[in-house]
Structure formats: C-alpha cells, structure tokens
Amino acid sequence: MSEFRTIRELCSVVVDCPHSTPKWTANGKIVIRNKNIKHGKIDFSSPSYTDDEHFAQRIKRAKPQPGDIIITREAPIGDVGMIPENTECCLGQRMVLLRANQSVCDNFYLLYSLQSLYVQHQISWSEGTGTTVSNLRIPHLEQIQIPYLPLEQQAKISSVLRALEEKIENNRRLNDNLAA
User: Fold this and answer.
1) What is the C-alpha end-to-end distance of the chain, expressed in Å?
2) Cα 136 from Cα 159, distance rounded (Å)
C-alpha cells in the first residue's frame, strides 16, 4: 500500500505571492512571472525587474531561496520551477512559493512529483474555481497528496531524474551546435 503526505506536511513554507503588480523597471531585482516557468524550470531569457523598494515589499512573507519551488496559481495553473543557485528574486503575481522541509522531503523529489500526472490531476480539480480564470487556492494546494517515500529513496529517485534531465539538455545543446 502506498503512503502519501500533503504538501503542507512536506513543506516548511507555503507562501502566496503578494496580490499586486510590482513596479516594473528596466533593471534591478528579478521578478519571476508565470511566463518564466516552463517545463519544470525557470526561464530567465526574458526577465522582468523591479526596484529595491518594491522588491522588499514582495519578499515580506518569505524571501525566495535557491532550491525553493514556485508553482503557478493561474494562467496557466500548476506549472512549476525551482529557483537556481545564486539567484535573488521575488514572485510576481499568481504564484506560490514552496520550501521543502529538508528533514522529510527532498526538494527535487517534490519538484518532480509536482509535475507528475498524479499530482497534476489533483491540481486540475481547481479548474473552474475562479470567476474569470481557474485558480489554485492555497487550502487546496496544501492538501494535495504527494507519494511519500523515505528521504533516502527520494534522494535516489531525484538523483536519477536529474542525471537524465542533464543528459537530455546536453544532447539538445549538442544537436543545436551540430545544426548551426
């Protein structure tokens, strides 16, 4: 029989973004927006910025740290990405910051689990919840069930998946170089 834990049980931090638009600037502090989260990664090829004052306002609830996971709440719903090392950023609108409790959950295992069909199906239960756009509400997000394994097994699984991801990315770059 499989064991499951909720996101609330696996995370030490589940923080909704500020419900306001930051002041946009030509440079400054990076603001992660929904458009930056694709295929389990955060894409910085087209960054958005805000100034120090608005950055400070946006990190009052929690300052994003490398290894934290961002999940989109709407438009689109359920996309995830992990904040990479050496990245200082804040959240835009319509997203939630998840910080795995390292004593019970490997953050990469959580990232991959959130992308699974099993978890994405649970997220899809939020379809039709908003008046205009479907919205993943925090109480629902916190109760989503993640397949649970001992921490050592989580680390082994995420290690294999990370190695496969790295191999795929290296092959993609090689193909791009060969095509050029």
Assistant:
1) 51
2) 29
Decide: 94 and 72 in contact? Cβ < 8 Å: yes
- Residues 127, 47: Cα–Cα separation, whole Å: 28
Q: What is the pLDDT of residues 29-42, one digit of tens each?
A: 999 999 999 989 99
Tell me which H or E stretch contains 146. Answer: strand 145-147
CA distance 180 to 177: 5
Give the predicted TM-score (pTM) of the model. 0.91
Q: Judging by beta carbons within 10 Å of its beta carbon (0-12, 13-18, 19+), is residue 144 exposed, middle or buried?
A: buried
Structure tokens at 50: 């805000």
CA distance 19 to 76: 16
Cα–Cα distance for residue pair 55/64, rounded to 1 Å? 11
The count of C-alpha atoms lying within 13 angstroms of the C-alpha of 83, restricted to the half-sphere facing its C-beta, is 24
C-beta of residue 44 within 8 angstroms of C-beta of residue 36: yes
The pLDDT tens digits for 62-98 are 999 999 999 999 888 999 999 999 999 999 999 999 9
Q: Give 1's pLDDT tier (boundaries 50, 70, 90).
A: very low
Question: What is the secondary structure of 58-118 as a DSSP string?
Answer: HTSS----TT-EEEESSSSSS-EEEPPTT--EEE-SSEEEEEE-TTT--HHHHHHHHHSHH
